[in-house]
Amino acid sequence: MLLAHDSGLSGDDRTLAEAVVAGQRRALAKAITLIESTRADHQVRAQALLRALLPSTGKAMRIGISGVPGVGKSTFIEALGLLLLEQGKRVAVLAVDPSSSRSGGSILGDKTRMERLAQNAAAFIRPSPASGALGGVTEKTREALLVCEAAGFDVVIVETVGVGQSETVVAGMTDVFVLLQLPNAGDDLQAIKKGIVELADIIVFNKSDIDPLATETAMAQMRAALTMLRPTSASWQPPVLKASATHNAGIAEFWQCIEAHRAALEAAGELAIKRQRQALDWMWQMIDAGLRSRFRTHPTVRAALPQLMAAVEGGTVTPAAAALQLLGCLSDEYTPAPLPPPHGGF
Ligand code: GDP
């Protein structure tokens, strides 16, 4: 059993960790629920659980899939998942849905999606947590991804829906980032404008059955647009593919492309470097979030804030001077600096 021993797990949580590593889906679901909990004591347990599971992580193919609502993400992922199950692989699907945290409603829908896939014991599907800020949701998704890996899933798919920001975070936690597109020019332009195309390692025009000619045109336009963008990696030029998820067409070719991408990155030694960089980015994002929260809850900051905000609004203190003074509140040996002399505004 690949568990870290100094992880400080309670007896029950050790049993849970062992059941996760043994690949039990119920244990996996329970572990993710613990990770998603916002209770402080649950968070302490969740971090200990993750520490214990860490040696068992890292072996899955991590795939990010994005696209506007209705492009066919769940249909495509289900078709892909069923193909992978046929190949004897175990497949987990996690969803990052920024809409669920803002409105309470979810664009990615509920558990009834991907029913055929969900019924299979070798598959695991987890919708995004229903609350929390975007950063919170994605941080939990990163951790859920690690738990799925520890549970022995060969492929972990992280699905997200496009607002730009969620694509960036999902591209930052996966080995390959896939953009599903509709074969019409409007969709192309939106994705290019939002900077999502730049993140994509593979672009797939789904629903090609509806209008094959329009699909070819859209593919050619996208290829032309890609020549003006920097490739995501030195060893990979993003290909533009087509598919029809409802007709199960283009799915096997897509998987070949995923395998080719992995082979190219591995041959160039880029996969390990990419994951190292992602781990460090994750650490810094956690530090940024932690510092921000510490700053906002710090009593001296809270006491000084209204006056300094008014001074900045009134143009009597520069934003930079106010920021420096407030940041100074965080250091233990802090003594309030005198306010800089007022000046004429800016
Ligand atoms: P999502 O919102 O991106 O997850 O999209 P869905 O997978 O829910 O698909 C939205 C609708 O498009 C559904 O009615 C699907 O049956 C349909 N759809 C998905 N893929 C295709 C396709 O390749 N061709 C056609 N004609 N319809 C599709």
Total domains: 2
Name the overall outline. globular
CATH topology of the largest domain: Rossmann fold
**Order of helices and strands, N to C?**
HHHEHEHHEHEHEHEHEHHHH
Broad CATH class of the largest domain: Alpha Beta
Query: Can you list the strand order of the major beta sheet?
Result: 3-2-4-1-5-6-7
Give the end-to-end Cα distance, rounded to a whole number of Å: 63 Å
Average pLDDT, to the nearest integer? 86
State which percent range the strand residues make up: 5-15%
Low-pLDDT parts are none
Q: Write down the Rg.
A: 23 Å
Distinct ligands, ions and cofactors found in the model: guanosine-5'-diphosphate
Provide the CATH superfamily of the largest domain: P-loop containing nucleotide triphosphate hydrolases
Q: Share of helix among residues?
A: 40-55%
CATH architecture of the largest domain: 3-Layer(aba) Sandwich
Structural class of the secondary elements? alpha/beta
Count helical runs: 14
How many strand units?
Answer: 7
Task: For the structure shown, list the relevant keywords.
Rossmann fold; alpha/beta; seven-stranded parallel β-sheet; 14 helices; Single alpha-helices involved in coiled-coils or other helix-helix interfaces; 2 domains; 346 residues; 7 strands; binds guanosine-5'-diphosphate; globular
What does this structure look like?
- The termini are far apart.
- The longest helix is centred in the C-terminal third of the chain and has 28 residues, at about 270-295.
- This protein has a 7-stranded parallel sheet, with helices on both faces.
- It is built from 14 helices and 7 strands.
- It has helices at about 10-20, 25-35, 40-55, 75-85, 100-105, 115-120, 135-150, 165-170, 185-195, 210-225, 250-265, 270-295, 300-315, 320-330; strands at about 60-65, 90-95, 125, 155-160, 175-180, 200-205, 240.
- With about 350 residues, it is an alpha/beta fold.
- It folds into 2 domains: about 1-55, Up-down Bundle (Single alpha-helices involved in coiled-coils or other helix-helix interfaces); about 55-270, P-loop containing nucleotide triphosphate hydrolases (Rossmann fold, 3-Layer(aba) Sandwich).
- Guanosine-5'-diphosphate (GDP) binds near residues 67, 69, 70 and 72.
- Guanosine-5'-diphosphate (GDP) binds near residues 69, 73 and 246.
